[in-house]
Amino acid sequence: MLNERKIRLMTQLAIYEKKEGREDMKLARYYKGDYTRFQAWKTGVAVTIAYLLLVVVAVIYKLEYLIENAFNIDYEALGKKILGLYIIVLATYVIIAMVCYSLKYAASRKKLARYFRMLRKLNHIYLVEDGIVQEDEDK
Amino acid sequence: MITILLEIREVILKAYQKVRFIVNPAVKFLFSILVFSAINTDLGYNPKFTGVPIVLAMAAVSAVTPSQVMVLFAAGLTLLHVYAVNLFVAILLLLVYIVLYALLLRFSPKHMAVAVVIPVLTKYNLHYSVPILMGSTSNPITILPTICGVIVYHLIDIVKGAAGREVELNLEDVVGLYTDVFDQLMDNHKMIMMIIVFSLVITVVWFIRRFSFDYSFQISLGAGVLVNILGFLIADLKYDVTVSVGTLILMSVLSGIIAMFCDYMKRILDYTAVERVQFEDDDYYYYVKAVPKVNISLREMDVKHFNRSAIDGDDYEYEEETEDEDYEPDNAYEKNEEDMEEEDLDVKEYEPKDFKSPYMLLENPDGDGEQGPVEDDGYSTELPDETGEDDYEEEMLLDDEMDEEEK
Fold it and tell me: Which domain holds residue B283?
């Protein structure tokens, strides 16, 4: 005999698995800390590459000045300035990334929790079908 | 009159449900053609890539792949065109693309297309609609791709001028070229003001639409249009950025209307998506086609039976609950999760004495928690040919009652 309630639940579960579920399950393989740290690392690498490119571009932009004053430039101060700016940019990006990715993780956990609640309901239907528990035991 | 309009809408939506598998790629295809031809008109230095077959082929691939592919094609096409006339500008463009991707685009892969949409729409003065739409459908993270789009538009404009320059292969010329391009990019008040205004518009629209007061969504769009107009007027006064006031106001209002229309369509399109899923249990394989009801307030789930006709009358619960992120339901349909789950159980909770007929025991489509027979109010009430199960339950109950009476 077809159990409509079961089919409805299974359909909802299947639609979730097919769409958002995929991404959520991927996230669920990580702990929250691991996930945000991993994303922060990736962001850090991307920002570093971008910053290096920007420094290269800046060097080309100021090349004339750099060549003219090659012996007068305080390289230590310049280096500190570049490094300081890098740390500020990196810190800003990493902090924002950690906040955003942890929000994303929390949202996905919420959806996943709902998914598991539906799975439990489905499980209950199976138990009822098999006669292991009574129909309204969970209420 | 309104009824007729609603009927027309339902007819269109029903038709759309049937052909959405063709319509969606077709729209993407047309838009891709628009993008690639715009690039070819602006930067068509390499005749190999300006041909119609190449454009059509790229558009065809973009139509059936995620929007990121179109962005990649567009970036590649600009690079190839510029490379054909000026290697150094091409290298510079590539560097800027990498920086833009690493700093702005990679955080919002779903909205990458915005980086292409803004440069294209700017030609028609319709780019004001993008931030309004982003604010009304998404979150402030879309500020990043929007900024990227604005930069790309101005960059392409500058590159167009620089690419034609004759550059000898010596340091002085190359450095001079780079310095010129960056000077133009950095001193571009119009670009900077555009970035600031667009970021503000996205934030304001997003912020206001999240409030729960009546018409908050429409008010947020209005506020977005207003911020847009005021922002560009201030930019005009302060930096003497040439903006035609009439065009600005007209296009901002038009953009607001377009954003409203797009948002409406997005909602409908999201909620008319037919889902086909398959799964199995110990006894059956199920091939289920879940059809949301066209009336977007209510969805039904069609369960296909192999030995019975379809049973209707269930809200499409899954779709309803994904709302809380992007979709603010009309007040009439506000339900919390617990209500929904309770409703899900209601079918089993009916007291048999309420049974008028086993076929009339579907949920109250208004979702107000009351149960009762389904009235003929436009909802599908197709019913099973034969159940037998409910009759049996009723008989069982009668037996129980008789037992009690005997006692």
Answer: 275-406
